[in-house]
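We modelled the chain as a single entity of 321 amino acids. Its sequence is:
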Amino acid sequence: MSATAPTADVRPPDGRWDTAYHAPVLVDEVLESLAGSRLVLDCTLGGGGHSAALLETGASVTGLDRDPAAVAAACERLRPETDAKFQAYVGNYAAIANLPDLRDTRFDGILLDLGVSSHQIDVASRGFSFRDGAPLDMRMGADAAADAATLLNTADEKELAWIFREYGDEPRAFRLAREVTRRRTTRPFVVSDDLVGAIRAVLGPRSGAPDFARLFQAVRIAVNDELTGLARALPDLRDRLNPDGVLAVIAYHSGEDRIVKHAMRDWSQACTCPPLLPRCECGGLSAGTVITKRAIRPQAGENSRNPRARSARLRGWRKAA
């Protein structure tokens, strides 16, 4: 039985990789980027949509996710393939060296689909959304140091301002940080309404869902150490590629995309000498080639079917043979 055989959980035809757990984005584009890869590492397994599509091409897939619920959902979906061509682990791609079974494994293709899954957003108890009464949690896995409530109640004003500015592109970051620290002196931040109230107090009554989404995302990124973890992980993932292997990354946040873009560009440069040297002295060779001249975005049809795909950007890089 194929891992993609129709079940009650799958929504054909244009969303055939979607399940009630998660709708993967840019699936066809990912398959094109990783075409020919026999051994693939799916670093952000989610509901297993990308892995199901890759398995159908004949690839063997190793899935990884820091969320045990995601791994369980993917294994249930891909059970027919579990013993043959699919295996999954609970773990953080930024700490893959801590998984003994994968410590020395190399791959022909590696996929990173950053951000959060549909399931994580839709389940109120996970605390990723700003719906009324949702707990301020936002942890993707047990490896997160603290939940969102703890961060908002303990971080100093300078750290909070940095989070709102750098991760949320908020021009009034210092005012918002001051409002958070002021409010928590009388009542701790516990649920989404507490943070929404602080945002409205600073941004005004016309602030709405886009502002809440942007600033809740900033807190989520900080809670899960997403950007620093990504920057730390990329060189390790690059080195786990076999010659001619491909790294494909889907980013949803400008900070994520910037890190990926700069890393792939730097890896593709042959010379690493300072720019003012009259001639090359390092004798460096390019580690590989960027295979996406510019980020690939979802088509209009996909955005209509899955609005959460709108901010997705796919970049690919091929390791030198």
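As a brief sanity check on the tokenised model: Confidence is low (pLDDT under 50) at residues 1-13. The domain at 27-119+227-319 is CATH 3.40.50.150 (Rossmann fold).
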